[in-house]
């Protein structure tokens, strides 16, 4: 997680870790299914969805904000791990289209939950956490590009990666509140893919100097 842990105590045994995860998964499930603000989802309902007593929730979380903070940390870690796996192996530049599609699938594949996450971030003032997650993924992108293209200036790679991450997430947030048919959604994805491909090609080109 990007912040200090929201847990009242750390689950040390496999059974207690599974219990905490079931609570966080239940919170996210309700957020996605109800398309609600976190304020509209009582802890009792989360406990019922998780199949645990309300006392078990309070064993690990002091209040609703703690649950939602834990959920945000859990979902971002899960998403980062999924994208990091897609980025591994082979040419990173060649894997970028797959990585981009994976990113869009993660966030646009469950639009109600992603909208709920956005409302949770605004509700609790956690924008800094989003920036830190963006910085972490941009650092992954920049490090992989520099590893494959040693002539690429690290600062150029970092700034370029940050801009690309902002652009992609801007598209994601815009798409969450739009109604498009399948063809329209495909067209948006194609435009984003073309943007990323073009900008990465420009970064890689800068690593090798002007064409002679």
Q: Any descriptors?
A:
212 residues; mainly alpha; Arc Repressor Mutant, subunit A; Tetracycline Repressor, domain 2; 2 domains; globular
Mean pLDDT: 89
Question: How would you spell out the order of helices and strands?
Answer: HHHHHHHHH
Question: Percentage of helical residues?
Answer: over 70%
* Secondary structural class: mainly alpha
Q: In the CATH hierarchy, what is the superfamily of the largest domain? A: Tetracycline Repressor, domain 2
The CATH architecture of the largest domain would be: Orthogonal Bundle
Strand percentage, roughly? under 5%
For the sheet with most strands, the description reads:
none
Counting structural domains, the number is 2
The parts where pLDDT drops under 50 for at least 5 residues are none
Count of DSSP H/I helices: 9
Gross morphology is globular
Distance between the termini: 47 Å
CATH class of the largest domain, named Mainly Alpha
What's the total number of strands? 0
Question: In angstroms, what is the radius of gyration?
Answer: 19 Å
Which fold name corresponds to the CATH topology of the largest domain?
Answer: Tetracycline Repressor, domain 2
């Amino acid at each position: 997680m990007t912040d200090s842990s929201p847990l009242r105590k750390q689950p040390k045994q496999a059974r207690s870790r599974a219990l905490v995860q079931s609570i966080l998964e239940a919170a996210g499930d309700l957020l996605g299914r109800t398309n609600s603000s976190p304020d509209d989802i009582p802890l009792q309902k989360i406990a019922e969805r998780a199949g645990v007593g309300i006392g078990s929730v309070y064993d690990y979380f002091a209040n609703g904000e703690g649950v939602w903070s834990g959920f945000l940390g859990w979902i971002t870690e899960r998403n980062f791990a999924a994208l990091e796996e897609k980025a591994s192996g082979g040419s990173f530049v060649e894997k970028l289209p797959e990585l981009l599609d994976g990113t869009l699938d993660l966030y646009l594949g469950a639009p109600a939950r992603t909208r709920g996450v956005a409302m949770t971030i605004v509700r609790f003032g956690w924008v800094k956490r989003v920036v830190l997650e963006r910085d972490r993924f941009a650092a992954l992108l920049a490090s992989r590009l520099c590893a494959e293209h040693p002539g690429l200036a690290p600062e150029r790679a970092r700034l370029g990666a940050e801009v690309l991450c902002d652009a992609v997430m801007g598209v994601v947030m815009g798409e969450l509140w739009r109604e498009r048919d399948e063809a329209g959604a495909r067209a948006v994805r194609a435009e984003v893919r073309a943007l990323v491909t073009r900008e990465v090609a420009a970064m890689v080109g800068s690593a090798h100097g002007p064409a002679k």
